[in-house]
Design brief:
7 strands; 38% helix
């Protein structure tokens, strides 16, 4: 598929720019909750096609902050897409958003939680490495390239945050971005 190839090439270019320090931030100041709801809604048809229920959880009505919409879109899209791909039919995927205090300043905490197949403990330390793929073809619904999580990690760093994963095989995975 041509779109898939173009997306992969763009991800590789972004990773290269990140490594060379030439990927610029393009910050806007607006309501990130509304933007995250928009991203969440864009995944409903993909989730429905895979018989996954998709939920948006937040107590925040709005949260005005500086962020780069393209970088946030890439991070959230990678995480939600993976959650849907690795969750069996009838499963659930949640995008949970809250404002937290990180150090001495407010920050956004975003979690993508799924009831999917989970990730073995031996693989958790490597999933953010470029080209790394958990080798379990029996559970894979789509072909991955091993680029998405590496890019998500680097973009989170560029935005001054970090990303981590917690998982229980057979029960699901939670990715947290701060």
């Amino acid at each position: 598929n041509g779109q898939r190839l173009l997306h992969l090439v763009n991800q590789m270019l972004d990773l290269s720019k990140l490594e060379s320090g030439t990927l610029p931030l393009k910050l806007v100041q607006t309501d990130i909750i509304a933007y995250l709801r928009y991203i969440h809604e864009s995944f409903h048809s993909f989730a429905e096609a895979n018989e996954i229920s998709l939920h948006f959880l937040t107590d925040e009505e709005q949260l005005i902050m500086d962020y780069d919409p393209d970088k946030i879109l890439e991070i959230v899209s990678n995480l939600v897409s993976n959650a849907i791909k690795y969750t069996p039919e009838g499963g659930r995927v949640y995008l949970q958003v809250e404002e937290i205090i990180n150090g001495d300043h407010p920050a956004l905490q975003l979690k993508v939680i799924d009831t999917g197949i989970g990730i073995a403990e031996k693989d958790l330390s490597s999933i953010f490495d470029r080209f790394y793929q958990v080798d379990d073809s029996s559970t894979r619904k789509g072909e991955g390239t091993g680029i998405g999580l590496a890019l998500a990690r680097e973009l989170a760093k560029l935005l001054g945050g970090h990303i981590e994963a917690d998982s229980q095989p057979g029960k699901g995975t939670t990715f947290t971005v701060i």
